[in-house]
TrEMBL record:
Residue ranges of every copy of the UspA domain listed in the record: 1-146
Gene source species: Caenimonas sedimenti
CDD domains: USP-like
Pfam families: Usp (PF00582)
UniProt similarity note: Belongs to the universal stress protein A family.
Record-given protein name: Universal stress protein
Domain of life per record: Bacteria
Gene3D superfamilies: HUPs
Amino acid sequence: MFKHILLATDGSAACDQATRTAIGLARTHGARLTALYVVDPYPYLGIGQANPLGFQAYIAAAHAHAGKALGRAAELCDDGGPPVAMETRIVEEATSAHGIAQTARDEKADLIVIGSHGHGALRKIMLGSVTTRVLAEAIVPVLVVR
C-alpha cells in the first residue's frame, strides 16, 4: 500500500515510537523510508541578527543534533528484524511543519509518520504545534504516533 514513507524526527525520546512505527510499516509494505530533520532557523532570528557568529553557532549545533537524531533512527532500523534501508534528509530555511510537508511533496512520499508531540505538561491533552501544522499543510496522509 505505501511505497515511500517520510519519517519526521526531532531526535527526542518521544520520536522513538514514531520511528519504530515507520520502520515496521516500511518492512510490512516493502516501502522506501526517508528520515527527515528540519533545522528551523526562525526561532533564532530576531535574537541573533546582530551577531552573525551566534547564528552560525546555532546552525552548527542544529546540524550536530540532526546527525544524532538521524543516527538514532538508523540504529532503530537495524534493531529487531530485517534491516530497513533508510535515506536521510536535512532541510534548512523552512519552519519545521512547512519543511516536513514540502519534503513529502518533493520526495513524493505517500505517508508522513510523526510523533504526536514533544515534551510538555499538556501533552496528553493536545497535539504538538508542529504536528498540528503538518496535519493542516500536508497533502498526503499523516500518521500521528503517541
